[in-house]
Amino acid sequence: MSIDPQQQPAGAGPGSATVAPAPEISARADEARDARREQFRLLRRSKTFIAGSLILGFWVICAIFGDLIAPDDPFATDPLNDLAAPSGDHWFGTDRLGRDVLSRVIVGAQDILLVAPLATLLATALGTVLGLVTGYFRGAVDDVISRIIDALLALPVVVLGSVAIVALGPSNSTLIIVIGLAFAPVIARTVRAAVLTEREYEYVAAARLRNENTPYILFAEILPNVSGPIMVEFTVRLGYAIFAIATLSFLGLGIQPPAPDWGVQIAEHYGLISGGYWWPVLFPALAVASLVTAVNLMADGISQAFERG
Amino acid sequence: MARFIAKRVALGLVTLWLLSVMIFLLAQVLPGDVARRILGPFADQSAVDALNEELGTDRSLITQYLDWIGGFVTGDMGESLAFRRPVEDVLGPALVNSAKLALVAFIIVVPLAILGGVYAALKEARPADRLISVGGLSATAIPEFVWAVVLILVFALTLDLLPVTAQAPPGAGFFTELKYLLLPALCLVFVLFGYIARMARAGTIESLDADYTRTAIIKGLPRRAVIRRHVLRNSLLPTIAVVATQLGYLIGGLVVIEVIFNYNGIGQALYDALQAKDFPLIQSAVLIVGIVYLVATLLADIAYSVLNPRVRLGAAE
């Protein structure tokens, strides 16, 4: 990497490069630490963040201990007692195969809370690398990748995802990969914008002067300073991933039956609501709604804390 | 100005070309051998080869791509495997139906969301603002099919006000058709409201803070005039761009809404094609979805620059 003389810090000639302005650098580090502490303090006091975390926490407990909490076996069918209305025996009623809707709603948190975070993690990792590379190098690499990202963003995730899943065949691992790839471009765009401002700072020029290699500059110097936008992006995308996966499952292209996924349950029963059988549809619908709302409330709290600080 | 537009159009065409290549790869290459897929794993290799030759899928990928894209441009999109009809005969009427549904949704949501966003900005940090902002955000986060089942339960089954399907009986008048479209459109309204309101709110807050607003107030203009002539004119510009990008989300939502309400639009056509693995129909439908989005964002870009004197005069220099 050649060094553009104009990007050298003022007064840093060849001789003075070793006499690093140490106090300034540690002052910046202190400042960063204080800013981070302030951000977490704001976060702990954010009502929307707390409300979101409590609801998400509830569903995480259902996902992990669901089999213990559920009053019935979520897979046990009871043909003599199908589509029974909510009662003392079955608080949320039974579905068309006589399975207990309450148990299926509780255990239904499992698949989506595994698939959505893993897909978002994959998207964030890919998007971060792409954003760092395009923002740092700019030029031809940036132009080509940015055009491809623009083209990908022209398709709604559900449309892009459903075509890829039909081509590959649906399964939880396909779902993770497809959603991960589909969300990476948006994250890349956000990270790229953050890197474009970071790369002009003196600490990047200083690292170049010390002859650090490019991966070190990207991941050890710039990455920690763009972690705020990346965290915001992760929570926002997690909400969208739950949205997209629930929608794909509803369309029969996401999580597959007999898994008691909420989208799958709604798909199996929405044709019955005009017959008055509302319970196998309404309860899973409320579950999806509460989960996405929770993640979005958290994302709102995080972005307020990190973007104002 | 003309140069700016020409540059945007050229860039849009490059993006569109890349998009068509990606869709082609996704729909034609990812699933593997076409004839093998149709005939199954136990079919004789010679039969597979013969079918590939008949379908033209034994030719080089570049020839196949050029064949498809050439046909697409001239309106010959090939034969749909599921509908046994030319693809363009399926997609043409479907596109018209989807446009109707989208139009009803937009006519409701755009004024409502702008009004809500501006009102929230004027009441910044007060309860009304929190209600619109957090409520809008939560409504946006909930998938369309969840809104659909909740709205069907309330308006169609409990209150018995609106029909459960979106497809009006053939020969129905304008108002009957509108009545059938109201419930599905309402689901889209819930999902779109938050984004547009948020942008209108942010734009209004920014221009309320701007120097020209302070000048107008100091000049002694009444508050209503300040808001109408100085604040709104500037605050609603960024909202145009958001309304255009929402069109992309809208089409994603159309797939689900049209399936639930049994409405013959492009979303339903795409869903049927996906279920039947009808790749000729899939790739053309998806490309149309992409074109609609790219054209909408391009028009928004141009409208933004025409309406914004800073961009207009800057580009003229």
Low-pLDDT sequence parts of chain A: 1-22
> Which percent bin holds the helix content of chain B?
over 70%
Indicate the percent of residues in helices of chain A: over 70%
Structural class of chain A: mainly alpha
* Unreliable sequence segments of chain B: none
* Morphology of chain B: globular
Largest interface: A-B, 46 and 49 residues
Q: Give the oligomeric state of the chains in this entry, treating copies of one chain as homo and distinct chains as hetero.
A: heterodimer
Radius of gyration of chain A: 24 Å
Judged by helices, strands and strand pairing, the structural class of chain B is mainly alpha
Q: How many strand units of chain A?
A: 0
Shape, principal axes of CA atoms of chain A: elongated
Which band does the percent of strand residues of chain A land in? under 5%
| Main beta sheet strand tally, sense and closure of chain B | none
Task: Write down the secondary-structure element order of chain A.
Answer: HHHHHHHHHHHH
Mean pLDDT of chain B: 84
Strand proportion of chain B: under 5%
Radius of gyration of chain B: 24 Å
Number of helices of chain B: 14
Q: Mind describing the biggest β-sheet of chain A?
A: none
- Intertermini distance of chain B: 9 Å
Keywords:
heterodimer; A: 309 residues; mainly alpha; 12 helices; elongated; B: 317 residues; 14 helices; 79% helix
Quick summary of this structure?
Chain A is mainly alpha-helical and 309 residues long. Chain A has helices at 22-45, 47-69, 101-107, 109-137, 139-153, 157-168, 172-198, 202-209, 214-225, 227-250, 262-269, 279-308.
